[in-house]
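sanity check this:
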Amino acid sequence: MSTTTGTATEKITAPDSVSAAESVSVPGPGPAPSSVTSAASVPHDASQSGVRRVPSAAARLRWAVRRLPHLLLRGATKSVAIVALLLLWETAPRLGLVDRIFLPPFSGVARAWWELASGGQLADNARASLVRSFSGFGLAVAVAVPLGLLIGWYRPVADILGPLLEVFRNTAALALLPVFVLLLGIGETSKISIVVYACTWPILLNTISAVRNVDPTLLKLAKSMNLSAPRLFQKVILPSSVPVMFTGIRLAGSVSILVLVAAEMIGAKAGLGYLINASQYNFAIPQMYAGIITISAIGVAFNQFLVAVERRLSSWRVPVGG
């Protein structure tokens, strides 16, 4: 038996606890008693420092209430110009500033829009236009994005296709509409084809520009890490090209609707362009403006959808000022 005196340490574990343990020092005849350390005395937040706390429903509600005035002010700021335009549209015909036969008040246009919507005529024409527009837009994205990446990345391909691209990019899509109708007929094929042609150029040119204008510092840094060409393209070129590429995609989204409306005015039996053209011929002016408003609303909604997709794909970017 050792003759040295010390402290006897006893470990006591709580019965209902998994990790809480108390180290109790029992004083002996030695010099000074050791400190008593208890895991139960550690704050709960400190023991859970590695766990992400989920806010409760009450906390989320309080946060939403605090954010409500800011959101209302932001919404009012963004909508003030639209409200002013609608008020001007409503009052100008009633005050005789413009002929209300050719520009009826907004309330009359809204009434005509509701009649078209409740009768199903607006939905049928909008569906026909959306199918044509989205089909042409999707085909243009599927063709123009890979081709733009290829032309921007490989200089020999750009040298071969460059002169041909310069010829067609300066030819307006609507100028070729009679050619598409003559070659493909007045059916769905010609309408979708003209949308594909019109949407290809904004996407293609912006994609080429995006690839060629990647930050050289990023390229040098990636090459210094001995990345292979496919990995360099995947990790550097493609992510850096997304913002500029989506600028062209958003332009193509608006072009797809505008060009389609013009195409539907020739030989179409359904669509928003057909609705506007037929309303003009029948002198149903409120219905004509109702079709124009519907096209504008679809364009805004589609653009917001593309903005959301762009934010999702370019979430790596640091916000300005942040």
